[in-house]
Recover the amino acids of this structure.
């Protein structure tokens, strides 16, 4: 695309989200290099291209234009410095992934966190706040289901919901944010946000009520919503997360289309709010043709035997709660259960959460 002429883009992490965004950018004509720690994934993309798929025929294409690098080949970027480096790794891999790309940033080069959780501070500790930008990917579900193949399991957001929210940690809308918004709009709905921290915490609450619960129970997102005991536990998680965020001074956005305060009130036993919230959470069957395979990233990790982000999600909410004096017992409990499931000490079953 004309607007990115000369801009070199790298994705440190070409997994589900990084591969989906990076692959689509490459398909649209941007200069993209995909860097990934999974050798088989990189080799498959080299041989056959990166296959992307979604819910419509237009979303199915093979990306052949993206350059790929194994971690061991990153030093080859010395000749072609990177203008924008997206870090799309798990939260616990943020520090080394940022340190890996830092020597290869151009003079104006900066790093974008395209991740779950709050990782901007980790990135800024390595490259500086002036070179740190955040992108919140809201209500998007993508799955790297085999090497070189990524599918989106949720319809495009369009006008109903803004998927990509791009912001500076200081809250001003800058030229580089506007440029990124233009690129993301070629994938799905996008906007510049002056509320990056509020957006991040909102997404954290949303992940905090979904990801760990699917990992602990082994259920899909829809099955969790339809199980009353588990659904009520999820509402508790949301309420605690919202109260911690408010105590930290964040301005929260809507969560699954619900006003954050209503969700917190439901968690605290307000019957009218509970009725309202449950009506939204109990999804209509058949609304999403891929609902049967839709699992958040943490449940995907669990199925693949990988380490989860539970500590950076629910564990983080619980720790921040301790700092501001707001109890988050459901987050502590869930963190403990998921950690045990991850280690093989417990089996993933609805019974773990009383369901």
């Amino acid at each position: 695309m004309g607007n990115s002429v000369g801009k070199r883009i790298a994705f440190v992490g070409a997994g589900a989200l990084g591969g989906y965004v990076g692959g689509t950018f490459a398909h649209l004509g941007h200069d993209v290099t995909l860097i990934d720690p999974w050798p088989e994934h990189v080799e498959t993309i080299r041989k056959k291209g990166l296959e992307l798929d979604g819910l419509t025929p237009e979303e199915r294409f093979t990306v052949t234009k993206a350059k790929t690098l194994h971690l061991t080949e990153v030093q080859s970027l010395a000749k072609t410095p990177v203008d924008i480096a997206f870090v799309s790794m798990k939260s616990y891999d943020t520090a080394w992934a940022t340190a890996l790309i830092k020597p290869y940033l151009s003079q104006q080069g900066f790093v974008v966190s395209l991740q779950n959780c709050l990782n901007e501070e980790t990135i800024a500790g390595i490259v500086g706040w002036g070179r740190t930008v955040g992108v919140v990917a809201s209500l998007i579900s993508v799955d790297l289901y085999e090497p070189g193949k990524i599918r989106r399991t949720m319809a495009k957001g369009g006008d109903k919901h803004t998927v990509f929210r791009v912001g500076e940690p200081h809250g001003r809308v800058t030229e580089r944010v506007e440029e990124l918004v233009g690129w993301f709009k070629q994938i799905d709905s996008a906007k510049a946000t002056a509320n990056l921290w509020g957006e991040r915490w909102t997404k954290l609450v949303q992940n905090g009520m979904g990801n760990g619960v699917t990992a602990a129970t082994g259920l899909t997102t829809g099955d969790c919503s339809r199980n009353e005991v588990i659904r009520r536990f999820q509402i508790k998680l949301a309420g605690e997360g919202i109260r911690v965020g408010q105590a930290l001074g964040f301005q929260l956005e809507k969560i699954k289309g619900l006003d954050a305060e209503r969700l917190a009130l439901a968690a605290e036993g307000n019957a009218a709010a509970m009725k309202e919230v449950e009506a939204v959470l109990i999804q209509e069957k058949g609304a999403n043709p891929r609902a049967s395979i839709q699992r958040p990233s943490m449940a995907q990790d669990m199925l693949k035997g990988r380490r989860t982000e539970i500590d950076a999600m629910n564990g983080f909410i619980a720790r921040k709660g301790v700092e501001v004096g707001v109890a988050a017992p459901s987050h502590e409990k869930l963190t403990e259960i998921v950690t045990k499931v991850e280690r093989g000490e417990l089996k993933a079953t609805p019974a773990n959460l009383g369901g």
The longest strand covers residues 105-114. Residues 196-217 form the longest helix (22 residues).
